[in-house]
Amino acid sequence: MHRRVLASDRLIAAFLFGCVLFNYPVLSLFDRQTTVFSIPLVYAYIFFAWVVVIAVMAWAVERRFK
C-alpha cells in the first residue's frame, strides 16, 4: 500500500512539473529567433520537455512494480 501511494505522489509531482514546464513564463524564456538543428528553439524546448515529462512518468510507474 505504501508503494502505491508513493507512486501516485510521484505521478502527481510529474504532472505539476509538466505544468510548470509548459507554462507561459518558462516558455517565454525559449521564445527566441534561434534555431537548433534548423528547428526553432521554442519547438525544440517543447519536444525536449515533453520527453522529460514522459520519462519521469515512466520512471514513477516502473518503480511501482519493483
Low-confidence stretches: none
Distance from first to last alpha carbon: 13 Å
- What is the makeup of the main sheet? 2 strands, antiparallel
SSE order: HHEEH
> So what's the overall shape?
elongated
Average pLDDT rating: 89
The portion of residues forming beta strands comes to 5-15%
Number of helices: 3
Strand order of the largest sheet: 1-2
User: How would you describe the oligomerization state of the chains in this entry?
Assistant: single chain
Radius of gyration: 15 Å
Structural class: mainly alpha
Range of helix content: over 70%
In total, the number of strands is 2
Structure description:
The chain is mainly α and 66 residues long. It is 76% helix and 6% strand. The protein contains three helices and two strands; from the N terminus they run ααββα. A hairpin with a 2-residue loop joins strand 1 (35-36) and strand 2.
Structure summary:
The chain is mainly alpha-helical and 66 residues long.
Keywords:
single chain; mainly alpha; 2 strands
Strand and helix map with partners:
Blueprint: H1 2-21, H2 24-29, E1 35-36, E2 39-40, H3 41-64
Antiparallel strand pairs: 1-2
Helix pairs in contact: 1-3
